[in-house]
Amino acid sequence: MNKKKLAVFHPALAPYRIDFFNALVTYFNTKLYFTYINVQDQKFDQGYLRKQSNFDPLYLERGFSIAGRTFRFGIISLLQKENPNIVICSEFGQITLVSFLYYLLSGRKFKLYTICDDSITNALERKGLRALFRNIISKNIDGVIYASSEVGKWNVQHVSKRINPLELPIIHKDETFRNKLKDSLPIAAKYIKDYALTEKKIVLFVGRLVKVKNISFLLNAFSKIDAKETVLVIVGSGPLEEQLKQNAKSKNIEAKVLFTGRLERNELHAWFALAHLFVLPSTYEPFGAVINEALLAGCKILCSNKAGAVTLVNQQNGDSFDPYNEKELTEKLNKALKPIGVLQNTELIIRKNNMPFTFNEKIEKLIYNL
Question: How far, CA to CA in Å, does 141 sit from each of 4, 5, 78, 269, 319?
Answer without folding.
Answer: 18, 18, 19, 39, 36
